[in-house]
Amino acid sequence: MSEAQPETDARGIAEDARARVRFEEEVLGLSDQVYRVARRLVSTREEAEDLVQETYARAFRSWRSYTPGTNLRAWLFRILTNLNIDRGRREQRSPSTQPLEEGDYFLYNRLEADGGSDDEARIVERLSQDEIVHALAEVPHDFRDVIVLVDIGDFTYQDAAQILDIPIGTVMSRLHRGRRILKKELAEASVGDSG
Amino acid sequence: MVYMGPDPCAKCEEMLQPFLDRELSEDEYAIAEAHLDECGYCRKRYTFEETLRRYVRQAVVEEMPPELKQKLAALRTPL
User: Fold this and answer.
1) At A57, is the pLDDT very low, low, confident or very high (cuts 50, 70, 90)?
2) Would the CB atoms of A28 and B73 count as touching at under 8 Å?
3) CA dihedral angle for residue A185, residue A186, residue A189, residue A194, rounded to 10 degrees
4) Tens of pLDDT along B39-67?
5) Are B39 and B12 in contact (CB under 8 A)?
6) Of B45, B64, B75, which is closest to A108 when you measure between CB atoms?
7) Number of neighbours of residue A31 by Cβ within 10 angstroms
8) How confident is the model at residue A8 (pLDDT cuts 50, 70, 90)?
9) Is B25 exposed, middle or buried (0-12, 13-18, 19+ CB in 10 A)?
């Protein structure tokens, strides 16, 4: 045994501690993005706060499972989406009820038919923030997860596929269908408004 | 002129999302663009879709409560 051993160990421990601090700082730097996505994966602010705290507790605990140099955001969001699934939110809608969606022009056609301005840039302003938030919450979770990751979290399809552990083709088809479901919900909400 | 089938607007509607997501092949992209150049009906709906995506994103973003940030920092490993 070399006499230098305790010193090497001490250096190793110090390096390990520094790496851990760096890791925790980087992960904390992503918290705004994590909250924004979490908030739309669940129904209430309280649930989102719990989910984010659980995500961070687990991320800090399992930091050694992260491989430095790989995609930290994707690693962290994978914890988030897995925890969300574990929380049993899957009960909220049976997977056998597949919602019907309309075509991609459906919402515009409905808003235009509703009268008023047909200015394509202004017509969107007829939808209120509440209507949009509510319509997104109505999109079944499998579709909503992808919309939230790609359209709000700014993840690439590749990253979304990795996070949700599904093929990239499934990400694309769920995203496209999900957006059409969202537009159908919005059309129903806006038409409901005008009575 | 590139032929888009018996109902070019229906074909264009199908291409809307992959067009905006830049998933179309070069040929498909050219086909869609040629149609959009001459079809105000589809152009309006494409512009609407782009605006809608931005609008939805703004509407659903909710910022994190500051207390939560402090709670997360408190979960860090003590030095």
Assistant:
1) very high
2) yes
3) -140
4) 999 999 999 999 999 999 999 999 999 99
5) yes
6) B45
7) 19
8) confident
9) exposed
Identify which of B55, B61, B65 has the shortest CB distance to residue A152. B61
Token readout for B63 is: 């910022």
Interior angle at CA A136, CA A132 and CA A141, nearest 5:
175
- Whether A52 has its CB under 8 Å from any CB of chain B: the answer is yes
pTM higher than the cut 0.90: no
Tell me the Ramachandran region of residue B39: left when phi exceeds 0, alpha when psi lies from -120 to 50, beta otherwise. Answer: beta
- Hey, what are B1's tokens? 């002129």
A107 touches chain B (CB under 8 A): yes
Amino acid of residue A191: V
Q: A164 vs A97, which has greater pLDDT?
A: A164
**Closest alpha carbon within chain B to A169:** B23
Cβ–Cβ below 8 Å for B76 and A24: yes
User: From the list A31, A36, A125, which residue is nearest B72 (CB)?
Assistant: A31
A104's CB contacts (< 8 A; 6+ apart) are A179, A180, A183, B13, B14, B16, B17, B45, B49
Cβ distance of B57 and A104 shorter than 8 Å: no
Residue numbers in B near A17 (CB within 8 A): 79
